[in-house]
Amino acid sequence: MKTIIEPFKIKTVEPIRFTTRTEREHILSEAGHNLFNVHADDVLIDLLTDSGTSAMSAKQWAGIMEGDESYAGSKSFYRFEKIVKEITGFKHIIPTHQGRAAEKIIFSILGGEGRIVPNNTHFDTTRANVEMSGATAEDLPVAEGAIPSLVADFKGNMDLAALETLIKEKGKENIPICMLTVTNNSNGGQPVSMENIRKTSELCRTNGIPFFLDACRFAENAYFIKLREPGYGTKSVREIANEMFSYADGCTMSGKKDGLVNIGGFLAVNDDDLAQQARNILVVTEGFPTYGGLAGHDMEAIAQGFEEVLDEHYLKYRIRSVSFLGEKLGALGVPIIQPPGGHAIYLDARASLPHIPPQEFPGQALACEIYLQGGIRSCEIGSVMFGKTDPASGAFLPAKLELVRLAIPRRVYTQSHIDYVAECIGEVFKKRDQLGGMRIVSEPPVLRHFTARFEPIKSKQYHP
Ligand code: P61
């Protein structure tokens, strides 16, 4: 088989800045050992997120110039609405400035005290918006998703038996919406099968529960279905995406992922009443319905991004470039969530650093050392992001998994960047026994991973 190449050539380049380890030690200490606080200019390879970090195409930049900035009835809105309708089939397309704004709107309408929202796994903003409305967010991933080393095709699936039990026990009248996140970001970027989407939809429809997709990475999910699910190998990814959306009553979307843009998102719904309520909130919090939280030029860029993301040469390269990193790390013995996900590799910090207990944040310790080693920025997805303190007992409640995510921005890095990342992580892995844990010095009340400050615990093993 021939090498799978980047299906583009590079027209504009952006230099990246090299620093020394001594400089990075100072930078990290100033940043309170939180990589969100590090200036991007002090990062060599930025794998913090795949969100809003895509390289846009020449046609998208041309769209930026084409953008119609009319307050009402912008031409760019109609282009955006047309392509989103073609792909999703939903009736009402409501532009928002990003995914969480769509979440905020839908849960302000459907959430509320005493209500329960199931999801295969809520991402943190989704959970925060559900909880802010007073409702409870229930994660119901399949059991195989919890075993990092297990290789299976659709580890992102919803546990249908658990969903059925939840509906029976809590009552369908208390479940105003059920969501499915594709791909399952908090669970390794693992895909959800078409069968699971269809069966979740059937269960919801039988019980009269609206079923929504959190569709941020719908194209990557559709490509996995094409590769892995019997019966889909000869279908186009566009047809597969159409089918995925056909089972849902609506979706929330962050265009910053599979929209291939730096900002933007939308809420889509079929129900006329729900759409009206959503637009009522939209005009107060985001903007007029034909721009929501976006400029006309942003809507042009998303419209073009949606055309490009379903290109199968792009998706082949995209999924391959992520699994390439996974294979390299695997060959070095570094434990990762298997198989590689669609947008990121997730290092298993618990398996790499068994001597650091969850309350000392092994993922944070690993992410910091990877930065010190090679100027590479990653993101902890473990007990910093999801750990809690039990309000009654004061006990530390760890996250299910202690992960470090290496999210790959779309169309940004080349194969040699990825080679370098694997080499640096290999070096860190060799000296893993010397790493020590972290302690929180200060933290905000919600989404603490963004701004919390840490300090290394000076155990005798720790030699920075
Ligand atoms: C990410 F550290 N994801 O993965 P918005 N649903 C899903 C997402 O992955 C997601 C959103 C909804 C981000 C950005 C991010 O604490 C963090 O357009 C499955 O970002 O509002 C976003 O979409 C929200 C990183 C968000 C974080 C919150 O990197």
What does this structure look like?
The chain has 464 residues and is of the alpha/beta class. It has 2 domains: 182 residues, Aspartate Aminotransferase, domain 1, CATH 3.90.1150; 252 residues, Type I PLP-dependent aspartate aminotransferase-like (Major domain) (Aspartate Aminotransferase, domain 2, 3-Layer(aba) Sandwich), CATH 3.40.640.10. Helix content is 40%, strand content 13%. Strands 2-8-7-6-5 form a 5-stranded mixed β-sheet, with helices on both faces. It has a 3-stranded antiparallel β-sheet with strand order 9-14-11. The C terminus is likely disordered. The site of ligand P61 has 19 residues, from helix 4 and helix 5.
Fraction of helical residues? 25-40%
Quaternary status? single chain
The tally of structural domains comes to: 2
| Ends apart, CA distance between termini | 43 Å
Q: Number of DSSP helices?
A: 16
Shape: globular
CATH architecture of the largest domain: 3-Layer(aba) Sandwich
Rg over C-alpha atoms, rounded to the nearest angstrom = 22 Å
Strand content: 5-15%
Supply the helix-strand structural class: alpha/beta
Can you count the beta strands? 16
Poorly predicted regions are 460-464
Bound molecules: ligand P61
CATH classification, class level of the largest domain: Alpha Beta
Say what the CATH topology of the largest domain is: Aspartate Aminotransferase, domain 2
The main sheet comes to: 5 strands, mixed
Q: What is the residue-mean pLDDT, rounded to a whole number?
A: 96
Sheet with the most strands: spatial strand order: 2-8-7-6-5
Give the CATH superfamily of the largest domain.
Type I PLP-dependent aspartate aminotransferase-like (Major domain)
